[in-house]
Amino acid sequence: MRLSGVVCDEAMKKIVYFHGYGSSGASGTVEMLRKLLPEYEVLAPDIPVDPQDALPFLREFCAAEQPDLVIGTSMGGMYAQQMFGFRKICVNPAFNMSTMSKVLKTGVHKFFNGRKDNQKEFRITRETIQHFNMMERQQFKGITGFDRENTYGLFGIHDNMVNTYDTFKKYYSNARRFDGEHRLNEKVLRTEVLPLIRQIMTK
For the whole prediction, is pTM greater than 0.90? Predict the structure, then answer.
C-alpha cells in the first residue's frame, strides 16, 4: 500500500480524520497531517451532509478500518466524540451545529474542497437542521469508562465560532486550551495536536 509516496506495511498505525462542515477528506488539514506524520496511515472519508446518513456511515467506517486514533475538528469533532470505543481527539468540537445559524444555513452551498463523488454543491434544508438537533440531543449517550479515559479535547482560546469547553468537561476530563483559533494551521498542528497524538499512540 502506498500513501503520499510512503510504503505502508501492515503494522503501520492508522489515524482516521473527520473534517469540518462543508469540507472533505481532501482538506488542507489532511494534507498537513500526512506530511507531518509519515509514520502513520491517515484516512479521511468524505462525511455525508445529513447527520442521519453521516453518523452511521462514520461508525461503519471506523468499525471496518479499526483506527488506532480518531481525530475530528469542528463538526468532525462532534462526530468523533460519538465514535465510542475508540481513542479520539476532538478539536474545537461543534456540539451545537443546529443552533449555529451563521454556519448551518438553509439553501445551496459550495463545498470548500473536492469530494470523491465530484459533487461541488450541497443543500441544507430545515429537515437537515432538525436532524442535527435530534442527533445532538443523543450525542453523549453511550459513553463508557474507556471513552472517558481516552477522549481528548483541544480548545482554541481565540475560537469565536464555537465554545464547547464546558460541555466537554461535563463528560470528559482530558481537556486543554491552546493559543489558537477555530481553524487549525500548521503551527497548532505542530505544537498542540502532534504532541498529543504521539502521547496517545505511545500510551
Answer: yes
